[in-house]
Amino acid sequence: MSINRRDVLTVSLASAAVVGQSAKGAAPAEAPAEADSRAEREQTDTFSAPVNLYDYEVAAKRILSGPAWEYFNGGSADEITLRRNRSALDLLQLKPKVLVDTTRIDTSRTLLGHNMAHPIILAPTSSHLLAHPDAEVATARGAASAKAIMVASTVSNRSVEDICQVATEPVWFQLYVEDDRGAVKALIGRAENAGCKALCITADNPLAYARNREERVRAQAPMLPFPNLGITAGPGGRARSRRHFNWEDLAWIQSFARTPIILKGIMNPDDADEAVRHGVAAIIVSNHGGRVLDTEPATIEVLPAVVDRVAGRIPVLFDSGIRRGTDIVKGLAHGASAVLIGRPYIYGLSVSGADGVRSVVDILRTELEGAMAMTGRTRLDEIDRSVFWKSHDYRE
Question: How many domains are contained in the chain?
Answer without folding.
Answer: 1
